[in-house]
């Protein structure tokens, strides 16, 4: 699957503004993802060239850190908490339901581009486990049925 066009000028500006910093790779990757929502595969050679490292090194950093994405995110991002408190309150059932309902795994986006699914390791809502966040709004005591209701609410707002 090919990626949509991405803003090469923005990538070039981020690289140029940060390439001379010590340990510049992570700030550059964060800068690109903050600006575009992801790190386009085509930006890897530009980053590698600017930092005088191999493309494999850049790719290795992108794939090592789960925070970085190399595909555009969905319109809405759902984070499912995987911390101990949520796991002890049937978080794994919620996780399985979310994946099945959306038809995707973590770090993927639904075919219609509406939702991306991401793991998170604490939302700070342990007293109301299991928890998710949708576009930064935290929801607690989320059952599979409540998950479906939240999705319906998000879709209705669109």
Word description of this protein:
It is built from seven helices and five strands; from the N terminus they run ααααβααββββα. It folds into two domains: 57 residues, no CATH class; 82 residues, Glutaredoxin, CATH 3.40.30.10. With 158 residues, the protein is an alpha+beta fold. Helix 1 packs antiparallel against helix 2 and helix 3 packs across helix 4. The protein starts with 7 loop residues before the first helix and ends with a helix. Strands 2-3-1-4-5 form a five-stranded mixed beta sheet, with helices on one face.
Quick take:
The protein folds into two domains: 8-64, no CATH class; 76-157, Glutaredoxin. Helix 3 crosses helix 4.
Helix content: 40-55%
Counting copies of identical and different chains, the oligomeric state is single chain
> How are the strands ordered across the major sheet?
2-3-1-4-5
Shape: elongated
Notable traits:
single chain, 158 residues, alpha+beta, Glutaredoxin, five-stranded mixed β-sheet, 46% helix, elongated
Task: Reconstruct the topology from this structure.
Layout: H1 8-18, H2 25-36, H3 44-51, H4 55-64, E1 76-81, H5 84-88, H6 91-102, E2 108-109, E3 115-120, E4 132-134, E5 137-139, H7 144-157
Parallel strand pairs: 1-3
Antiparallel strand pairs: 1-4, 2-3, 4-5
Helix pairs in contact: 1-2, 3-4
């Amino acid at each position: 699957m090919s990626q949509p066009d991405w803003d090469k000028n923005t990538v070039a500006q981020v690289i140029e503004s940060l390439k001379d910093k010590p340990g510049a790779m992570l700030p550059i990757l964060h800068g690109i993802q903050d600006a575009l929502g992801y790190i386009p595969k085509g930006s890897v050679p530009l980053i590698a060239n600017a930092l005088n490292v191999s493309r494999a090194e850049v790719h290795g950093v992108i794939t090592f850190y789960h925070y970085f994405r190399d595909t555009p995110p969905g319109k809405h991002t759902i984070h499912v908490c995987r911390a101990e408190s949520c796991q002890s309150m049937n978080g794994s059932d919620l996780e399985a339901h979310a994946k099945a309902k959306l038809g995707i795994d973590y770090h993927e986006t639904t075919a219609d581009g509406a939702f991306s699914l991401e793991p998170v390791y604490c939302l700070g809502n342990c007293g109301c486990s299991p928890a998710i966040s949708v576009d930064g709004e935290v929801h607690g005591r989320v059952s599979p049925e409540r998950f479906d209701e939240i999705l319906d609410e998000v879709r209705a707002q669109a």
